[in-house]
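Supplementary Methods. Inverse-folding protocol.

Structures were first reduced to a discrete structure-token string of length 193. This string, shown here, constituted the complete conditioning input.
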């Protein structure tokens, strides 16, 4: 029974997380596209950005540079090892504008980022939406933490664009305002305002 439960969880095992971290380090060394990619998100100096599903902080750190000293980045993840890795980078690199937050409740579908209502100008959900078991509930949490005029940047991860769009559409929470090969940019649907 516990074997099934482990497969159904949205949280990676510690071993899987370590493997993912090693792979990301290799990929980022040979193909440093993260900084180039984040430039397309519309992030500006002074903004508050949530990197939801931050993993080892490979997006959090360049986003922190983009928002500058007056901005703030919240690195949110369900995995303690992810946040520890981000906290280690914060200390080593002297980064002052990143805060970490342990998300809770993912396995029962009661998503809670630990952030206050209307916190973010932008929420980035990169390479993680495909693993979310209850996408509408997850998107409700994103809606809660976004400011009324906030933007969601979301990508497909390991699912087709068609599936990503179906999940977004069926929630009724977000409207796609821009589509690139790389990501979708969404705003809160008028009915949700």
């Amino acid at each position: 029974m516990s074997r099934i439960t482990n497969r159904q969880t949205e949280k990676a095992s510690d071993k899987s997380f370590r493997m993912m971290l090693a792979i990301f380090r290799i990929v980022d060394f040979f193909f440093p596209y993260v900084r180039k990619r984040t430039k397309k998100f519309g992030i500006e100096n002074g903004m508050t950005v949530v990197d939801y599903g931050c993993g080892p902080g490979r997006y959090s750190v360049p986003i922190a540079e983009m928002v500058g000293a007056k901005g703030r980045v919240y690195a949110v993840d369900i995995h303690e090892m992810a946040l520890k890795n981000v906290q280690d980078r914060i200390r080593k690199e002297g980064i002052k504008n990143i805060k970490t937050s342990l998300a809770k409740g993912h396995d029962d579908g009661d998503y809670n980022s630990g952030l206050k209502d209307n916190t973010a100008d932008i929420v980035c959900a990169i390479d993680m939406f495909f693993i979310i078991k209850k996408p509408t509930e997850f998107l409700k949490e994103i809606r809660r933490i976004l400011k009324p005029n906030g933007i969601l940047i979301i990508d497909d991860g390991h699912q087709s664009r068609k599936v990503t769009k179906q999940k977004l559409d069926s929630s009724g929470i977000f409207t796609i305002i821009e589509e690139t090969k790389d990501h979708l940019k969404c705003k809160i649907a008028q009915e949700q305002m």
